[in-house]
TrEMBL record:
Entry-linked PANTHER family: ZN(II)2CYS6 TRANSCRIPTION FACTOR (EUROFUNG), ZN(II)2CYS6 TRANSCRIPTION FACTOR (EUROFUNG)-RELATED
Gene Ontology BP terms: DNA-templated transcription
Species per Swiss-Prot/TrEMBL record: Beauveria asiatica
Annotated InterPro entries: XnlR_reg_dom
Protein name: Xylanolytic transcriptional activator regulatory domain-containing protein
Pfam families attached to this UniProt entry: Fungal_trans
Keywords, comma-separated and alphabetical: Nucleus
GO molecular function: DNA binding; zinc ion binding
Domain Xylanolytic transcriptional activator regulatory: 136-277
Tagged with keyword Nucleus: yes
Superkingdom assignment: Eukaryota
Length: 551
């Protein structure tokens, strides 16, 4: 971890304190029901935005322009719900009323507009991208707003399939966050001038660094992400409704989360806190499987991992048991957390289950290497049921009655991992009505992935890869491939469909040059688990398998 400077430049305090207005008009971002709010509410810009009258004409003009910005509106209605880090819209409008903050926030606004145009116009704007990159230079390197900018820009680039540039941006976000020691509890309080909303914003910024870093690590095939071992003491974020309203409660600590099993009554942990907890559980489960002593029973290792993952689900606060809210909205952070837990469960158990790895999966880094031939693993049925239940749980999340399917693109890889396991079940395990149901579920997962692919080129590439794998695993031919096979003779896949030896059919399908000509670049889909990193004592997990991190 880079060493943080002992003392930041003098200008740092000016960069990280909330704005003070000029003249008699007082800016306040305290909650409207706060006892002190009434002292300042008469001339608060937030009041002015909601129909009040300001003594400064620029306030109404700025608020009106901000309120009519369709790209910002698109950002807040979409991407902000998935990764709620920046100030809520009304509070951001307050800060924009201050000239010094306005200039600092312009680079962030440019990135929000870039993301907004993807949702509003379904296109990437080179003009807005240039605006982002030119305005980023306005920010001092020690400005924590720069961390938010790098994070969001990194995500936009990554799902536009610009991985290298995206990872550079992510590296900058991590570097600055560590240099500023945003992971320390004192950072939020010290640099918010007792403004609870700004303090919450800084807490969320650190934990979003943590979340994004984990998501990238899982997506690119290595769970060893860079900030995992940072000794973070930052308090956990509050619930989204509280953040939006400005009514920020006393935050829960990480220590309280780790001791939640002893609470007589549920503490009000937020969905954001549950997501952070899910990532920590997944990482701890992974670590429990690494370098376990050679004398340790490998199944005991898995039992430890299972207990960690199961405890996350069992100890969810009662208020967080439902992913769908009463009004029909999806709790996006819980949605992500559940998908993450399920995909890690799939990764641990599939190598020891009846859900064999299809040879054609080898052309995708979304799949892990199959287990070497050997005796049937002990408790194979337990592992198979574990995988099937995790896949079933994913399907239930995808089938929630909320359409259109609109979630973070980082779910792409988690859904894909479950789809590959479900494809294996269709080929090797399920028959009759169960097979028919599973095929419908595959249609659902691919349909959801296509919705994400309509916005994000990287997700679209993922859809194409999954479709190609699925067709060959299930022995399905398109009209064009069938015609080509008729010209050249019998198709190997046709033989598969007639019931001949499955393994030979798979190898025949691999020899079909059409497979590879359509796949072209399978350098990555995703990889939320890497069995090559697990202890060699575990059966069927090769010790010499290299981590499948993208080159």
């Amino acid at each position: 971890m880079p060493n943080a400077p002992d003392q930041l430049p003098d200008y740092m305090s000016a960069l990280i304190t909330p704005p003070e207005t000029e003249g008699p008009a007082t800016v306040s971002v305290l909650p409207y029901n706060s006892p002190t709010q009434g002292l300042a509410s008469e001339h608060s810009p937030l009041t002015d935005c909601r129909g009040g009258r300001s003594r400064r004409a620029s306030v109404n003009l700025d608020c009106e322009a901000f309120g009519k910005d369709a790209l910002l509106e698109a950002y807040y209605q979409n991407f902000h719900k998935f990764h709620p880090m920046v100030l809520p819209r009304l509070h951001l409008a307050t800060f924009l009323d201050n000239l010094s903050w306005r200039r600092r926030l312009e680079p962030l606004l440019a990135i929000l507009r870039l993301l907004g145009t993807i949702y509003l116009r379904h296109e990437w704007s080179a003009c807005l991208q240039n605006d982002v990159e030119s305005k980023m230079d306005w920010l001092a390197k020690a400005d924590p707003i720069r961390v938010q900018c790098h994070l969001l820009y990194s995500a936009a680039l990554f799902w536009q399939d610009e991985k290298s540039k995206s990872q550079t941006e992510m590296g900058k976000a991590v570097e600055i966050a560590l240099e500023l020691k945003m992971f320390e509890r004192e950072f939020a309080s010290t640099h918010s001038n007792e403004d609870p909303i700004l303090a919450e914003c800084w807490r969320r910024t650190w934990w979003m660094v943590y979340v994004f870093d984990a998501f990238y690590a899982g997506t690119l095939g290595s769970m060893g992400f860079s900030v995992v071992h940072v000794a973070a003491t930052a308090d956990l974020p509050c619930d989204e409704a509280q953040y939006e309203s400005g009514d920020i409660p006393e935050p829960n600590s990480l220590g309280e989360w780790d001791c939640r099993e002893f609470d007589q009554e549920d503490k009000p942990f937020s969905s954001f806190a549950c997501l952070v907890g899910a990532i920590r559980s997944a990482t701890l489960a992974r670590d429990s499987s690494l370098k376990s002593g050679s004398r340790k029973n490998p199944h005991d290792v898995l039992h430890v991992a299972d207990s960690i993952l199961d405890s996350w689900m069992l100890l969810l606060p009662k208020s967080k048991k439902q992913v769908m809210l009463r009004n029909g909205d999806i709790d996006e952070l819980l949605f992500q957390a559940h998908h993450l837990i399920h995909v890690v469960m799939i990764g641990f158990h599939r190598p020891l289950s009846d859900l064999k790895f299809n040879a054609v999966e080898d052309i995708s880094s979304c799949a892990r290497d199959p287990a070497p031939d050997g005796p049937t693993p002990e408790h194979i049925n337990v592992h198979t049921v574990r995988v099937l239940r995790a896949v079933e749980s994913q399907i239930r999340l995808l089938a929630l009655p909320s359409r259109p399917f609109n979630h973070t693109p980082f779910c792409t890889c988690m859904i894909s991992e479950g789809t590959l396991a479900l494809l294996s079940a269709c080929k090797f395990l399920l028959r009759g009505d169960e097979l028919a149901v599973a095929r419908d579920q595959i249609r659902l997962t691919i349909g959801c992935l296509k919705s994400l692919g309509a916005l994000w080129p990287r997700a679209a590439r993922n859809v194409s890869q999954i479709q190609t794998i699925a067709k060959h695993v299930l022995g399905i031919e398109t009209h064009s491939s069938a015609a080509a096979a008729a010209d050249k003779g019998a198709s190997p896949l046709a033989t598969c469909a007639s019931g001949e030896n499955e393994s030979s059919c798979e190898m025949a399908s691999l020899s079909n040059s059409h497979v590879f000509s359509t796949m072209r670049d399978f350098d990555d889909i995703c990889g939320w688990y890497d069995i090559g990193e697990l202890d060699s004592a575990l059966p069927f997990w090769p010790a010499d398998h290299e981590a499948s991190v993208e080159k």
